[in-house]
Amino acid sequence: MTFARGFAAEVGKGLLDLVAGWRESLIQMITFPLFYLLIVLFMGRGQLRADLLLPVLLGMVALTFIHEQVNRVFWSYLGDIQSGVLEQTYLTPLPSAASILGRQVAAVISALPTALAVLATGATAITVQGGRMPFDAQVIVPLAAIVLGTCGLALILCGLTLVFRRIEIVTQLSVAVYAIAGGTLVPLAAMPDPVAALSRLLVPIAPGIEAMRDILLGGHSLATLPTGWGLGWLLIQPLLITAAGVLLFNRLEHLAKRRGTLGRP
Amino acid sequence: MIEIEALTKMYGSAQVRAVDEVSLHIPAGSVFGFLGPNGAGKTTTIKMLAGLLTPTSGQVRLGGFDVVRQRSAAMAQFGAVLEGSRNVYWSLSAWQNLMYFGRLKGLRKAQVSERAEDLLSGLGLWERRDDKVGGFSRGMQQKVAIATALIADPPIVLLDEPTLGLDVEATRVVKDWIAELARELGTTILLTSHQLDVVQELCDRVAVIRRGRLVADLPTRELLAGFRERDKYEIRIEGAAPAGFDAVTREGVTTMSVRVNDPREVYDVVERLRAHGVVLESLTQVQPDLEDVFLALVNEASHA
């Protein structure tokens, strides 16, 4: 019960931060959809081509989500470390998992408005072009895989920032790599095999994007996904990344307590 | 009750000893002053006490619970205002901060609300409870940090520089609170401050750390008494001092320092002054304050 209170407090604080930073959120809700439309325009040589709108949209929604979720939870950690508040959050009888889980959930919720703005923009553009925005309930599975895998990645980056300085460079770089090699804009099937394999192995959003395209564009079922490594990998990959995140965070938290880096200027 | 046993912290491959075999026993309901110059190992000790830093060896027990092995039970006993850090979220209001930290300590919403109202009213922040802490003065922010430390009503409280940046009135409020917490609620308080007059006024016992080692751990009175200069007196007279006396004159009042081998020799000095027709204003035995004692201890240790 006390765990639930700590968790709820953390989620509540994250949502208060979201409300307090509504201007920044609004700017993101405008720039990311614009970014999406520009990419489709460039790819379509100046035209919003109907055959590009949906595939790019699926990748862009996932990319927007991972960018927002990872950055929000990462910067909240880094900011708390540098200001010294993080140490105060450790002076509680609750395990740090309550706080970490709460931060992750708050970041997921906070990432949704921008991701949904991209989705709404894409759906509108598709409708305007005379197309139809497809929906299949099976898409929930890859979406859930993306959310889980993203949380795992965020845990790894937050763990690293407990111990090492200048980790923000790694965070920015990793999101940039996912944009290029995560199958967001260019499908993994169109990439060199080793790059595609590495992406499917390590990028939290890659199997999810492939599965969403197979379901919504190809009309395939979850059980018969033709591209990528199938349903099994779609489910296992985010679990492995999250497990790695939990283990690594735990180890790095212990290391931070040994080195005294939980609070540093 | 706080028990620290042979606490040691070594850093880096060079195994630098930041804290070296420090042992302290702080009884329940006492106000304990923990002093040390910058870099002496004070903050390292405090962080180990708060479970934020893992000791290389030794043990810390809060209310009988080991901070490392029984962290949850130990932290349930503990609240802290940490020096040099923000302690609270500037983007949240005072009320939101107390609700957040109270629930993070496992309290129910209703419990936190009641306690938060008491604390904010007592610290004179009730009217500003919905304002963002970032817009507060340094003193008001410090008050919110103190309220946060006390939100779960912990039996052990660490106050690291609690009066830093506070004006005279706010300092008085905080000092009264500390005294009241210990006296009426039996809270054990570990206090660190560079404002040694605050420590002297509040603390039952004082420990001084220097280069990672304790150089003193005594009741405040005993510590001061140990440094009392029994042979030194200060005499204030009107006008100039007669020849042969070591004196300083400021704004028409002359202060003379007199050293005697036996307190009874003071009568002879007074007799000599009377013979010169000097009018006495006051005569006092020189009493060291905690600052004198602290400087003496720190310098003594550094010369050793």
TrEMBL record, chain A:
<dbReference type="InterPro" id="IPR051784">
    <property type="entry name" value="Nod_factor_ABC_transporter"/>
</dbReference>
<feature type="transmembrane region" description="Helical">
    <location>
        <begin position="169"/>
        <end position="189"/>
    </location>
</feature>
<feature type="transmembrane region" description="Helical">
    <location>
        <begin position="229"/>
        <end position="249"/>
    </location>
</feature>
<feature type="transmembrane region" description="Helical">
    <location>
        <begin position="25"/>
        <end position="43"/>
    </location>
</feature>
<keyword id="KW-1133">Transmembrane helix</keyword>
<protein>
    <submittedName>
        <fullName>ABC-type polysaccharide/polyol phosphate export permease</fullName>
    </submittedName>
</protein>
<keyword id="KW-0812">Transmembrane</keyword>
<feature type="transmembrane region" description="Helical">
    <location>
        <begin position="140"/>
        <end position="163"/>
    </location>
</feature>
<feature type="transmembrane region" description="Helical">
    <location>
        <begin position="105"/>
        <end position="128"/>
    </location>
</feature>
<keyword id="KW-0472">Membrane</keyword>
TrEMBL record, chain B:
<dbReference type="InterPro" id="IPR003439">
    <property type="entry name" value="ABC_transporter-like_ATP-bd"/>
</dbReference>
<protein>
    <submittedName>
        <fullName>ABC-2 type transport system ATP-binding protein</fullName>
    </submittedName>
</protein>
<dbReference type="GO" id="GO:0005886">
    <property type="term" value="C:plasma membrane"/>
</dbReference>
<dbReference type="InterPro" id="IPR050763">
    <property type="entry name" value="ABC_transporter_ATP-binding"/>
</dbReference>
<keyword id="KW-0547">Nucleotide-binding</keyword>
<dbReference type="GO" id="GO:0016887">
    <property type="term" value="F:ATP hydrolysis activity"/>
</dbReference>
<keyword id="KW-0046">Antibiotic resistance</keyword>
<dbReference type="InterPro" id="IPR027417">
    <property type="entry name" value="P-loop_NTPase"/>
</dbReference>
<comment type="similarity">
    <text>Belongs to the ABC transporter superfamily.</text>
</comment>
<dbReference type="InterPro" id="IPR003593">
    <property type="entry name" value="AAA+_ATPase"/>
</dbReference>
<dbReference type="Pfam" id="PF00005">
    <property type="entry name" value="ABC_tran"/>
</dbReference>
<keyword id="KW-0067">ATP-binding</keyword>
<dbReference type="GO" id="GO:0005524">
    <property type="term" value="F:ATP binding"/>
</dbReference>
<keyword id="KW-0813">Transport</keyword>
<feature type="domain" description="ABC transporter">
    <location>
        <begin position="2"/>
        <end position="236"/>
    </location>
</feature>
<dbReference type="GO" id="GO:0046677">
    <property type="term" value="P:response to antibiotic"/>
</dbReference>
